[in-house]
Amino acid sequence: MNQHFDAIIVGGGMVGSALAAALGQGGFSVALVESGSEPSAIEDDSFDLRVSSLNLAAQRLLESVGAWSHIPAERRCTFRHIHAWDISGHGETHFDAEALQLDDFGSFVENRVIRKALWQSLAALPGVEPIFGARPLALLTGTERVLVELDNGQMLSGSLVVGADGARSTIRELAGIEVDTRDYGQRALIVNVVTQLPQQDVSWQRFTPQGPQAMLPLPGPHASLVWYGEPEATREREALSDAALREVIEREFPARLGGLKRVTGRASFPIRRQHARHYTASRLALVGDAAHVIHPLAGQGLNLGLQDVTALADLLTNANHAHQDLGAPGPLRRYAWQRRPQTLAMIAATEAFHSVFTGNATLRNAGAAGLAVAERLGPAKQFMMRRALGLR
Ligand SMILES: Cc1cc2nc3c(=O)[nH]c(=O)nc-3n(C[C@H](O)[C@H](O)[C@H](O)COP(=O)(O)OP(=O)(O)OC[C@H]3O[C@@H](n4cnc5c(N)ncnc54)[C@H](O)[C@@H]3O)c2cc1C
Questions:
Q1: Quick one: which of 288, 320, 322 has its CA closest to 305?
Q2: What are the DSSP calls for 204-233, one per residue?
Q3: Is 269 in the pocket of ligand 1 (CB under 6 A)?
Q4: How many CB atoms lie within 10 A of CB 137?
Q5: How confident is the model at residue 92 (pLDDT cuts 50, 70, 90)?
């Protein structure tokens, strides 16, 4: 007899483990299948290259599942100001947390630290069974349950299967769900640096015709720089020595960066958008990057994924209270209705930023004017910001 779970979550990244924690805390039985190994303890004091801005809604979710307290203060950097401007010098906008009666806008935290904190909170949930080093081979969906065959020989039975297995989701593929994609023809070079300036609480971004240049503050004098550009130019920069890369950044980045003490790491990623045509199928839901990958210029990919988690966990909890089958079409349909429009709105916003600021001179002037107008329209600016923070 196969062991039966309320939910089988495939993918134990930040989004899958957050969903497992939310469901486990709600008393559901959950199998969490991860192809990799258990996240290891973070013992070094260097900063990883993958960093995310967690907005206030994401922070609240991490608090509610008991993960936030596992993120040490010395590994997160709170930011209170956001500044964006165009290289032409004709448009700029500032956002201040205080003006929105907030203490801050959120925090920058390394992905590995977020993931480790979530797995620490999972350890206290007996209803969550982690299965490491395994991948799904096949799905068999029936009227009362879904069977997931794993490549380690296990067969799991669940009321629902959730694909949280990232952009190349196997669950999405096994369910035959297609994706729409767009390659932006850009790469993002991420460079970790130690700045001459002390700890900062402002995140800034300058738009150039080749793509944005951004500074994400990390604890102490550390920062993560993101430099978007044409793939070939980006690869050439990535191949430079630490000293040469430092020099190029000091020359090409805005003067407000100040001097750099050193470059401590670099990596580059292709920039593309990917959106699943459906978020659900029979007894199946997609969350996080398995459902949507967006341009990272607004730093909202993980935040969107964590909003999927909150929505799905709430709908399943309501279904459970109403003694409904968790894999019934009703809750899944509501999940897709709630989440697709939110993602589409975010895709439209990031796409508009990308097209306007990397477009021709007329578009760029319009974009610069847009930033200047946004700066003057107080209520519209506040509305935009509240959406980005995941606040209603
Ligand atoms: C350059 C860059 C900068 C970014 N900056 C930000 C930011 O500032 N803020 C923000 O909110 N977002 C940001 N993002 C986006 C964010 O990193 C992603 O949205 C987020 O990592 C997605 O998490 P996930 O858990 O859905 O997927 P993943 O992190 O891809 O996790 C998927 C998990 O599933 C596992 N897995 C994969 N396949 C299988 C399988 N077949 N079986 C079992 N397990 C499997 C993997 O091992 C992994 O653990 C950025 C992205 C990029 C590229």
A1: 288
A2: EEEE-TT--EEEEE-STTEEEEEEEE-HHH
A3: yes
A4: 14
A5: confident
* CATH 3.50.50.60 for the 4-180+273-388 domain, yes or no: yes
Which atom of ligand 1 lies nearest, measured to the CA of 293? 19
pLDDT in tens, 198-208: 888 999 999 88
Instruction: Name 332's Cβ contacts closer than 8 Å, sequence gap at least 6.
Output: 160, 280, 284, 285
Start-to-end CA distance of the chain, whole Å, equals: 46
Between residues 372 and 197, which one has the greater pLDDT? 197
Rounded CA gap, 69 and 250, in Å?
36
Ligand 1 centroid to Cα of residue 293, in Å, is: 9
Atom of ligand 1 nearest to the CA of 14: 25
Residue 111 CA to ligand 1 center (angstroms) comes to: 9
CATH number of 185-271: 3.30.9.10
Q: How is the chain split into domains, by residue range?
A: 4-180+273-388, 185-271
* Average model confidence (pLDDT) across the chain: 91
CA–CA separation, 157 and 184 (whole Å): 40
Q: Percent of the chain having pLDDT more than 90?
A: 74
Instruction: pLDDT band for 273, please (50, 70, 90 cuts).
Output: very high
